Amino acid sequence: xxxxAMNLSSTDQARAPSGLSSIPFATRRKFFLVAxxxxxVAYVIALGVFPLVKGIWYSLYEYNLLKPARTHFVGIDxxxxxxxxxxxxxxxxxxxxxxxxxVAIELVFGxxxxxxxxxxxxxxxxxxxxxLIPVTITPLVVGLIFKGLLxxxxxxxxxxxxxxxxxxxxxxxxTPSTALATLIFIDxxxxxxLVALILLAGLKALPGDLLEAAAVDGATAWRTxxxxxxxxxxxxxxxxxxxxxxxxxxxxxxxxxxTGGGPGNSTNTLMVYAVKEGLSFFNIGKASAIxxxxxxxxxxxxxCFILMIRHFDKRANGR
Amino acid sequence: MTFMKGNFQKFxxxxxxxxxxxxxxxADKPLEGVTLNLASMNDQFSAVLAQIAPKFKEATGAELKVxxxxxxxxxxxxxxxxxxxxxxxDLITMDIVWAGQFAANGYTVDLNELMKRDAKDLxxxxxxxxxxxxxxxxxxxxxxxxxxxxxxxxxxxxDLFDAAGLKAPETMEDLVAAAYKLTDPAKKQYGFVANxxxxxxxxxxxxxxxxxxxxxxxxxxGKPALNSEANIKSLTVYRDLxxxxxxxxxxxYDWGGREESFRQGxxxxxxxxxxxxxxxYDPKTSKVVGKVAIALAPRGxxxxxxxxxxxxxxxxxxxAKDKQKEAAWTFIKWVTSPAIQKxxxxxxxxxxxxxxxxxxxxxxxxxxxxxxxxxVFENGDGDYRPRIPEYPEIQDILGTAVNSVLVGTxxxxxxxxxxxxxxxxxx
Lengths: 319, 427
What we know:
The complex is a heterodimer of chains A (319) and B (427). Chain A has 319 residues and is mainly alpha-helical.
């Protein structure tokens, strides 16, 4: 490293007959850059690639930490069994429903809030700060707070909801038809402000002259929104969508502390299922298989969004 | 030279004195310098353990660090410690149902040898034999030493029973009838409460009621028999009680919610671990002080009088170094000694293993329900929740199945049929 750096700084490289300086400058430069990137690459390999490969490897084994004697290679059996497993299919369905509904509603509300806070004045700035509070609370704590509030027999909110007949007397979390919806509501409560913040940043970056021109031409607010704001905002929208979808897909904390996947299996999500298999039963093979499938899901979603962002970007820039 | 000589003599004297004091101290406190790490369940005894740790240091010289965790973290952290052979913890509180798993994998020291060696220090004849067996013995291996015995008891509202002209229920049939009679939703008064929450909470409570109604989780050969006639019948009774006689939110109660509903006075009967009982007598947390009685849990008509027991053993990590193991064993002997057991329970640990502690005058004056505990421990059953290596999975399967029945998404037979199919795959 030191050698290369020293050589790079020397000016009479062409004349030096031996050592590193006999290598052409371009090659040496490449070498130097690779060397500089090595620590970061090593870091990614150690903390990203290695666990990933190991996870794929484990998923091909019957491997339970509590039953070491039973460990043996099973090929893709873990995956085949999962696809046959009604609980797993239920977990995928719950995860997809949770993701689609929470992200879609967050996007709509986030857009409305962003438009409302668009004008840069003191009131809006204060509002923005205040609505960001939920984002700063750990999801696990949010789950515990809502669980306490919504208890049917002595929760501050749940008691009255049940008393007035608005919910099942068992309470929102203990009723199969409302438990998932309640979790979606909690996610919306917590993460809509973040979506609003991203979209607000997008709005602030819009070219003012276009909007002014539209106003001069007598375009209605709706027309301006539809033809100018929305198309130009698409990259920001996509960014918010990508972040939130990936995050919602891996939902765990709030579910774990409120329903634990219940009642029955009605709020069992992929991550809750994987954690239960991995950290309650130490069934590493099966847990790895579940996590890998979830990872594949996230990867597909992310790839789709990235392609779409690129597409909209090209269109917006007229290329 | 003389000066030097004089000084040297002084120095030598000081050294000799220091050495002798040190030796005397070492004989006095043989474990000076040793630190023991204890992974403890967060239960009533854990705060008391942390409180008495300095006394152990005073007596032996060893420092005791108590790491208090919830049930899930305790299981995860200690299992990781065992599997990775990291010996992070020397002592582990072991739930009664982990015994099979610990024995199968040799995670903890088999205490039989040490118990034989130190038999005269242990006074183990004073420990209830049922607890000695249930809280650590698995197929001849003593994987933990009994430390905190809990008795399943019936807590009921004496005032409501008296007002309705009812006697304390002796059979399950009496209990069910009383539960229905004492339910009046208009007055926010319910006859029954139990855990309904998906997971260990509902599984463990139902297994208790199931055993009392004549059901069993395993058949005679030790294989799962979840969908037996008796189990289906008992689950149907359990569901009906939840539907018609329990607080509406009970389908989502775990131990905390269940105890709270009883302390708040909305439930007339509740089966519970004896460890929670001191809480009903505390006016700071309980609205039912003076209205509660603790009785033996009922059994189905004609069934033998045996009662559920649970609780915790104290185990020594098999990966710990020999010196640590010896120190840990010293701690176990100390903490289960009659004097310390009494002291712990006077401080509210609610954890009993010794006949002499349960019969103790001072403790009986403070906790009037101790004779019930004696009866339970003498006729205890620690296996209604099977202590086999597959227990965690079976508990999980039942935890989902029973909860599905309680919230109305499955019928008892269908739910238990599916559970049986899943459980059979584990063997």
